Task: inverse folding
């Protein structure tokens, strides 16, 4: 079971992104340090906007470079995604989306969590009765064309949200953000179209830290990958 951490803006681990010879490090004051690996020079980049104790801050790599996601865990439950770009020799943040996640949480309430079990497999928890790992054949493919459209209106607020929202990561090749909502479901939020796809249940008690991986990465992965 993943370790839980208190609801606070101080994460257990901070993320680092490599992009085109540059290393981007999430610092303790929420600034980003850009390190040029060829010469060791560095630059400190301010976060895209001001934050308070109800704001969760994440960085990750996707289609066009370094992205950051902000989730406002107050009554608005807003998601902002920013893209870092270099314009005339200066690093600047550009806002990709600014939307309310209340419709997402409302639709994927934990009360209806059995409607779609989804393709998720907890590899670390798949064991047979003798304590040996069960090899699971990968037959599930993600269909980008299936999904639902949710209308996220400015000013959407609610007095109670049944569950919470955690940011899981960005898709490495497409402008998609993965979210864990209502303490049960994983959804994919397409930044370009605001299309939301239900990816099924992820049966964990809570999410501490997460990261996406691609098959060619090495480490604690199955040999078949």
Result:
């Amino acid at each position: 079971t993943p370790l839980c951490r208190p609801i606070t803006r101080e994460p257990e681990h901070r993320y680092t992104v490599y992009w085109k010879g540059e290393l981007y490090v999430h610092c303790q004051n929420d600034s980003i340090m850009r390190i040029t690996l060829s010469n060791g020079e560095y630059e400190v980049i301010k976060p895209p906007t001001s934050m308070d104790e109800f704001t969760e801050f994440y960085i990750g790599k996707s289609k066009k470079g370094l992205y950051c996601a902000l989730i406002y865990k107050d009554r608005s439950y807003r998601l902002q995604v920013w893209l870092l770009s270099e314009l005339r020799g200066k690093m600047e943040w550009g806002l990709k989306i600014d939307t309310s996640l209340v419709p997402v949480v409302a639709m994927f309430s934990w009360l209806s969590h059995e409607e779609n079990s989804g393709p998720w497999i907890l590899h670390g928890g798949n064991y047979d009765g003798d304590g040996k790992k069960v090899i699971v054949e990968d037959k599930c493919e993600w269909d980008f064309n299936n999904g639902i459209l949710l209308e996220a209106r400015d000013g959407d607020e609610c007095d109670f949200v049944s569950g919470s929202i955690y940011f899981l990561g960005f898709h490495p090749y497409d402008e998609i953000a993965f979210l864990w909502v209502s303490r049960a479901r994983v959804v994919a939020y397409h930044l370009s179209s605001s299309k939301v796809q239900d990816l099924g249940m992820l049966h964990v008690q809570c999410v501490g830290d997460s990261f996406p991986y691609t098959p060619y990465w090495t480490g604690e992965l199955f040999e078949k990958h």
Observations:
- The longest strand covers residues 90-100.
- The helical segments are 102-107.
- Residues 102-107 form the longest helix (6 residues).
- The two ends are 23 Å apart (CA to CA).
